[in-house]
Write a structure and sequence with these properties.
By secondary structure, the chain is an alpha/beta fold. The chain folds into two domains: 2-106 and 288-312, ATPase, nucleotide binding domain (Nucleotidyltransferase, domain 5); 121-285, ATPase, nucleotide binding domain (Nucleotidyltransferase, domain 5, 2-Layer Sandwich). The chain is 38% helix and 19% strand. The chain is built from nine helices and twelve strands. It has helices spanning 36-49, 88-95, 104-115, 184-187, 189-199, 207-216, 219-242, 258-271, 290-312, and strands at 2-7, 11-17, 23-30, 60-64, 67-69, 74-76, 99-103, 123-129, 133-139, 142-143, 248-251, 281-283. The strands form three sheets. The protein has a five-stranded mixed sheet with strand order 3-2-1-4-7, with helices on both faces. A hairpin with a 2-residue loop joins strand 9 (133-139) and strand 10. The structure holds zinc ion. It catalyses: N-acetyl-D-glucosamine + ATP = N-acetyl-D-glucosamine 6-phosphate + ADP + H(+). Keywords: ATP-binding, Carbohydrate metabolism, Kinase, Metal-binding, Nucleotide-binding, Transferase, Zinc. Its EC number is 2.7.1.59. It is an enzyme of class 2 (transferase).
């Protein structure tokens, strides 16, 4: 039994994960965005509630939006002030037990690679199309990151570059990472909305409205989705030509739109040198369980692989 949590920008998702991968006592709390002590209290309360079934030396497993840098033992690049810059040791000291911390997209990729859509694949590129864009690489059940915890971050890097001949012809926006023109600026739900406004004279529509109207045949939304899917599919295909993952599970809110995933898949396969016949870009199988299961797997992989995989395969 492990207390697992996914700390997002809006909510902290918590639950007790057992060796069979079941999640109990699932709770969702608003994220104490700027209040470290309130965040710690959420964990301490949960540990108190389950004190009888969670061992004192059992690590608390956390996935979060941000980079867990093993070299410095610090959380970096997080939009949540209560965790940004925190040392892993701060969590351990506050909770009086070991703590395992992992980036949320890496947790997603690890869970899908081990228990979900990628379980029969050696290399998995898990991507999140949520508020923004995230990604994680898994090979042989191991997350691939560099010494600072970076890997699979396809959402960042200056891909959209304005034309010197026709200024304003490319949607170049500032990214939270400090660069401009990152896929993160147009690839998630907010990005799709930003792209829609850019294409249609500032028109405001939510990502759910855009995808729904696209499916219903709306011409403006079709243009947005055409542009959106091409902007995303190219880099995904290029990535797969470089790192030979054979499956791309997609999580996050936009993965709920199955036709969007199918369109992305067709475009990605067209851009791949291997031209796969079978679907490569697929919807998450674990849905909203992936974050907590990935956090658990990052600390208890051997236990879960031994106990869960044989029965699931
Ligand atoms: Zn960026």
């Amino acid at each position: 039994m492990r207390l697992c949590a996914d700390i997002g920008g809006s909510f902290v998702d918590m639950g007790i994960v057992d060796a069979s991968g079941d999640i109990r006592d699932r709770q969702r709390h608003p994220t104490p965005v700027g209040d470290w002590h309130a965040l710690v209290t959420l964990f301490r309360d949960a540990l108190e509630r389950h004190g009888g079934i969670i061992g004192a030396d059992t690590p608390v497993c956390i996935s979060l939006a941000g980079v867990a840098d093993p070299a410095s033992g610090t959380i970096t690049s997080s939009n949540t002030p209560s965790v940004h810059g925190r040392r892993f040791d701060d969590f351990g000291a506050a909770l009086d037990r070991p703590v395992s911390i992992i980036n949320d997209a890496d947790a997603f990729a690890l869970a899908e690679a081990t228990l979900g859509a990628g379980r029969d694949h050696r290399r998995v590129f898990g991507i999140i199309l949520g508020t923004g864009v995230g990604g994680g690489l898994v090979e042989d059940s191991t997350i691939l990151v560099d010494a600072h915890g970076i890997g699979g971050e396809w959402g960042h890097g200056e891909i959209l570059v304005d034309s010197p001949i026709a200024p304003g012809s490319v949607p170049v926006f500032e990214c939270g990472c400090g660069r401009t023109g990152c896929l993160d600026t147009i690839g998630g739900a907010r990005g799709m909305e930003r792209l829609h406004a850019w294409l249609h004279d500032g028109a405001h529509a939510t990502s759910v409205e855009i995808t729904s109207r696209w499916i219903a045949g709306d011409a403006a939304c079709r243009t947005t989705i055409e542009y959106y899917s091409r902007l995303l599919a190219g880099p995904i295909a290029t990535f797969l030509n470089s790192f030979p993952a054979t499956i791309v599970p997609v999580g996050g809110g936009l993965s709920n739109c199955e036709p969007l995933i199918e369109l992305l898949d067709r475009r990605v396969r067209t851009g791949m040198l291997t031209r796969p016949v079978d679907q490569v870009v697929v919807r998450t199988e674990l849905r909203d369980r992936a974050g907590l299961l990935g956090a658990a797997l990052a600390s208890t992989r051997s236990l879960l692989i031994e106990d869960v995989l044989p029965s699931q395969r």
